Amino acid sequence: MSIKRALVSVSDKQGIVDFCRELSALGVEIISTGGTSTLLAKEGVPVIGISDVTGFPEIMDGRVKTLHPAVHSGLLAVRDNEEHTRQMTELGLDYIDLVVVNLYPFAETIAKPDVSYEEAIENIDIGGPTMLRSAAKNHAFVSVVVDAADYAGVLDEVRAGGDTTLETRKRLAAKVFRHTAAYDALIADYLANVTGEPLPERYTVTYEKIQDLRYGENPHQKAAFYRKPLAAQDTLTAAEQLHGKELSYNNINDANAALQIVKEFEEPAVVAVKHMNPCGVGVGASVYEAYQKAYNADPTSIFGGIVAANRIIDADTANLLKDIFLEIVLAPGFTEEALEILTKKKNIRLLKIGSLSTASARKSSFVVTSIEGGMVVQESDVHSVNPEELQVVTTRKPTEEELKQLLFGWKVVKHVKSNAIVLAANDMTVGVGAGQMNRVGAAKIAIEQAGEKSKGAVLASDAFFPMGDTLEMAAKAGITAVIQPGGSIKDEESIKVANEYGIAMVFTGVRHFKH
Ligand SMILES: NC(=O)c1ncn([C@@H]2O[C@H](COP(=O)(O)O)[C@@H](O)[C@H]2O)c1NC=O
């Protein structure tokens, strides 16, 4: 078999003229729709209008142009089925051997900030996916191209053998069904938002590949990195890598964790992350000061860590960063001098991310976690505490400084794997107890890490204390103030201990478990 007749109908016209010119030179007859055929004709490529094939005008603003039996029988006929070929001859229909279609730009349309509902709906392509699906189903005989990246390969095969191979047609067909499925998933998602059904009876998500990864969490696991089609600019999926080796699977998870924490802060902040938990967080008057605090919070653990900042990295900060081994530095930018300093280090990865806004830390979206055989979906934890709603439950109220540190600790503990305890003092973390099976264990780790620094520090707990033991331990370590959700049947036990030691304790009424 050879390709004799192609149907071309594309919204994105890049590369189409050269592709069709080549096809035409190889003896392929080209049929095309409105805008595509006008362009081809203008560029001197011989083209037959779709209406000449269907005997029907393109009507309703292009809503109906290729939706016609003359098109779909030409695409769907089983060429070695006698009944099909008889019908084709009887009705005077011709086969179509190649379909080249890309769709109305639905994603680009809904990405526009001022898009109207009507405009979005008008950009749902019907004729295009129908042709793609007909051709893809009949890939035993028909080639189908939905991606301009495949133009060259198809041309090579047609040049060499008059047609594509069955293997190529299968691959192209599979790509088409992924494409139309993703296209429909985005429409479904858009309409679910319009109708206020974020958790519908079928969850149809679509992601596009950013890059293959060398391996997953461990070298024997295959892995790749994907993004949502309309992911925000201040997410890791939109980060630009300025320097360093390819990101790894673990790098991506850690950098994402660091980014979520740093977005909590309005003031200059730096976060160091190891294994998805913060090992040091600092805020200050400048990124330089914030980094010093994040570093001093735990100079041991930061080694080999991921550092995220919410301000542009300047030369002074870069000079500090360069002194230790870091996997990644992630920031809204780097001054030229800073880049010069840091790019001297071969092993550091530098990521530039769109300007960060604390608003995005407050914007709820749905996040998915896989389980074997399924997944669970929940809103992201975007709650932030309003200082006026804090309930002081002890005789002593926190001082202004204590309150500042409590609110800082609360922002951090939200991002620490449960059970989580964070000790803070002087706008930095001094102890982090993460992922323990009991709360006293988490507190013990945080207090041990803080050492002398626990004296006068404050403590944040991601969930309530089931009994008074954690508070007893905190008091003995010199903690002066505590922030926690409250709500335990034994709250009174903790309040009693706090009062005995003169600790000021506030309840937030909100829990921040993180698994
Ligand atoms: N309605 C139809 O019969 C139809 N046939 C093809 N299209 C789309 O029209 C676009 C190309 O239009 P034009 O060649 O007029 O620029 C392509 O994205 C193609 O997928 C159609 N449009 C939408 O449904």
UniProtKB/TrEMBL annotation:
UniProt-listed Enzyme Commission number(s): 2.1.2.3, 3.5.4.10
Secreted keyword on record: no
Sequence ranges assigned to domain MGS-like in this UniProt record: 1-146
Reactions catalysed according to its record: (6R)-10-formyltetrahydrofolate + 5-amino-1-(5-phospho-beta-D-ribosyl)imidazole-4-carboxamide = 5-formamido-1-(5-phospho-D-ribosyl)imidazole-4-carboxamide + (6S)-5,6,7,8-tetrahydrofolate; IMP + H2O = 5-formamido-1-(5-phospho-D-ribosyl)imidazole-4-carboxamide
Keywords: Hydrolase, Multifunctional enzyme, Purine biosynthesis, Transferase
Pfam families per UniProt: AICARFT_IMPCHas, MGS
Keyword Transmembrane: no
Residues passing through the membrane, by range: none
Pathway(s) of this molecule: Purine metabolism; IMP biosynthesis via de novo pathway; IMP from 5-formamido-1-(5-phospho-D-ribosyl)imidazole-4-carboxamide: step 1/1; Purine metabolism; IMP biosynthesis via de novo pathway; 5-formamido-1-(5-phospho-D-ribosyl)imidazole-4-carboxamide from 5-amino-1-(5-phospho-D-ribosyl)imidazole-4-carboxamide (10-formyl THF route): step 1/1
SMART domains, A to Z: AICARFT_IMPCHas (SM00798), MGS (SM00851)
Protein family: Belongs to the PurH family.
UniProt free text on domains: The IMP cyclohydrolase activity resides in the N-terminal region.
PANTHER family cross-referenced by the UniProt entry: BIFUNCTIONAL PURINE BIOSYNTHESIS PROTEIN ATIC, BIFUNCTIONAL PURINE BIOSYNTHESIS PROTEIN PURH
Protein's recorded name: Bifunctional purine biosynthesis protein PurH
Organism per entry: Paenibacillus borealis
Lineage: Bacteria, Bacillati, Bacillota, Bacilli, Bacillales
Gene: purH
